[in-house]
Amino acid sequence: MKVKIKNKTKNIRTVWMEKNIIKMIDQRKLPFQLKFFNAKNYNDVAFVIKNMVVRGAPSIGATAVYGIAQAVMQKKNIKNAAKILRKTRPTAHDLFYAIDYMLNEIRSGNDAKTSAERYVEKLVNECKKIGIYGEKLIKNNYKILTHCNAGALATVDYGTALAPIRFAHYNKKKIFVFVDETRPRLQGMLTSWELLNEGIKHRVIADNAAGYFMRQKMIDMVIVGADRIAKNGDFANKIGTYEKAILAKENSIPFYVAAPVSTFDFGLKNGDEIRIEERKEDEVLCIKGKRVAPEKAKAFNPAFDITPKKNVTGYITERGIIRSGEIKKLKSV
Ligand code: MRU
Question: For ligand 1, is residue 146 a contact (CB within 6 Å)?
Answer without folding.
Answer: no
